[in-house]
């Protein structure tokens, strides 16, 4: 029996393949991508769009994404952020640098009043990310 898990599933407006390949460059890992056409919608205007994609990373992260098909509304929201946290400063700084590249930084990744390093950015695909690096206990 597989354990339950919680992971982001991100909707894109025709950029799912490009975005998920970008996240694979950021985090590494194995990326599976399936189009609407591969699932039988070969005559659909969405045939080449991504119906489902899943990235499994060496760090144990799972990121899923798809394109919104025609007829469904796509709205880019600000009510959800993807949060990365931990104590591996080098790993998290590496992710931050790649995610922020081509995007916009709203809070620079730096030491905050609670003692951790924290930053917020929106990547080049309009997805909000938060990174928190736990301060070394000393």
TrEMBL record:
UniProt superkingdom: Bacteria
PhnB-like domain span: 6-131
Name of the molecule in the record: VOC family protein
The species this protein was found in: Kribbella lupini
């Amino acid at each position: 029996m597989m354990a339950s898990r919680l992971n982001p599933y991100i909707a894109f407006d025709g950029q799912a393949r490009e975005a998920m390949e970008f996240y694979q460059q950021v985090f590494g890992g194995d990326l599976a991508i399936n189009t609407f056409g591969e699932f039988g919608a070969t005559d659909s205007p969405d045939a080449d769009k991504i119906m489902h994609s899943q990235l499994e990373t060496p760090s144990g992260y799972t990121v899923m994404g798809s394109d919104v098909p025609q007829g469904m509304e796509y709205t880019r929201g600000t009510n959800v952020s993807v949060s990365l946290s931990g104590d591996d400063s080098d790993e998290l700084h590496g992710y931050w640098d790649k995610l922020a590249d081509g995007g916009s930084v709203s809070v620079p990744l730096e030491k905050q009043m609670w003692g951790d390093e924290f930053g917020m950015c929106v990547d080049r695909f309009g997805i909000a990310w938060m990174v928190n690096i736990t301060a070394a206990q000393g």
